[in-house]
Amino acid sequence: MSQVRVTRRYRFSASHRLHSPVLDDARNREVYGKCNNPHGHGHDYTLDVSMRGELDAATGRLVPLPQLDALVESTVLKDLRWRNLNVDVEEFAAIVPTTENLARVIAARLASAWRVAFAGRDVQFEKLRIYETKNNIFECVNPLRETAGESSMGESELQEVQ
Ligand code: NI
Question: Cα of 126 to ligand 1 centre, how many Å?
Answer without folding.
Answer: 26
